[in-house]
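Entry type: protein chain
Record version: 2
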Amino acid sequence: MIRLDNISLSYGSRTILRDVSLHLSAGELCALIGRNGAGKSTLLRALTSHRKTLINGTSLADLAPEKLSESVAIVTTERIRIENLRVEELVALGRAPYTNWTGRLQDIDREIVAEAIAMVGMSDFTGRDTSSLSDGELQRVMIARAIAQQTPIILLDEPTAFLDIPTRFEVCRLLADLAHHSGKCILFSTHDVDAALPVCDTFAIIDNGTLCKLPTQEAAAEIERIFR
C-alpha cells in the first residue's frame, strides 16, 4: 500500500534516520512512536514527499499531485479554528481533490461529508462554528475531513495530543474502526502508548536513528526499553 525502502533523512546537517524502511498494508493500523525529536514528524512528511516513497507500487516521483491527494490524507497537529467556518464546511475541504475548479460541491459530495461527520460521531454538531469546539471535538472533525477525502491511506501526526484521557482512547478506537472495517492503511504518531496498545496491529519504533516495525504483541518489551 505505502512503503519506503532504505532511506536516510536529515534535518539541517543532522541525520535523524539512517537507512530505514517502512512497509504498511491495507487494513493496518500502525502507531509510530519514539522520544521527542526522534524523527516521527520527519518520517510522516517523507511518506508524502520523498521521491522513493511507493504508493501501490508507484513512485511518488511518478505520481501526479492530484493522484497523491486522492491516495493519501493527512491530519496534522494544526487546530483550525476560524470564526464562521462551520463543521460541515471544514469537513467539505476534504472533497477538494474531486470538485471542479470552482470548488462547488455536488449532491454526492454533500452525502460523503455527512457520512464522514456521522462516522466520527459529530452529526449533532453540524452547523456549529468550529471556533466553538473543544480540542477533542475539533480533532474528530479533522479526522472526518480526512475520511471525506476518501483516500486508502491516512497519516496522522499526534492525533491524541492535548486531549483528555477518555477522548484519547476514543480517537484510537475510531482509527482502529477505519482501518479494520474500511480497509484503510493508517499510520499515526503518538506518545499515548496505553491508548494505542489495545487497538493497533503494529508499532513502528524509532530509536537512535533506527526504525523497526513489530506486531503489537512483540512491541511491548521494546517500548518499555526505550521509555523506561
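Comment: The chain has a mean pLDDT of 91.
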